[in-house]
Amino acid sequence: xxxxxxxxxxxxxxxxxxxxxxxxxxxxxxxxxxxxxxxxxxxxxxxxxxxxxxxxxxxxxxxxxxxxxxxxxxxxxxxxxxxxxxxxxxxxxxxxxxxxxxxxxxxxxxxxxxxxxxxxxxxxxxxxxxxxxxxxxxxxxxxxxxxxxxxxxxxxxxxxxxxxxxxxxxxxxxxxxxxxxxxxxxxxxxxxxxxx
Length: 196
What we know:
alpha+beta, DNA Binding (I), subunit A, 2 domains, 5-stranded mixed beta sheet, two-stranded antiparallel sheet, 9 strands, elongated, disordered C terminus, zinc ion binding, endonuclease, NA-targeting_endonuclease, HNH_nuc
């Protein structure tokens, strides 16, 4: 329960990050954030949230002295900026985007069984960009060789694209969005501008 995701909003109520329950409750306890009620968007400090949690039956953390309901959304009381919105173009993030899945055969592999493949080979003018790099298993990469997917009759299961993640969190929006987050998360999509 302590590792469930909690949406973090800045003071302007813009989604800026995702944290686990432990971190979110720590921020609320220290006075850096307040819990947002998904029903009516009321905000609660730690003591008020603990008092409100007495009536809750589910999704609570029990301590020796009290129980406290797991928050879904918190709003920061001191931070009004936004985190860095660019996503680092890295091997790790390509693996995260493609979910350890070969983009030619569609099978999932361990990281060490996958390679990075240029959809349009570098020898044919292909560049290292989000739209031209995919994960490939060794057999598919060998079969494709120095050709395009069409030339090797190995169609991509999904065209590569720039990822759409929450700012700074590295978490895919499609994986972590809870219904109570929707009004806040819609504004968190963005296009990442990359240069080769």
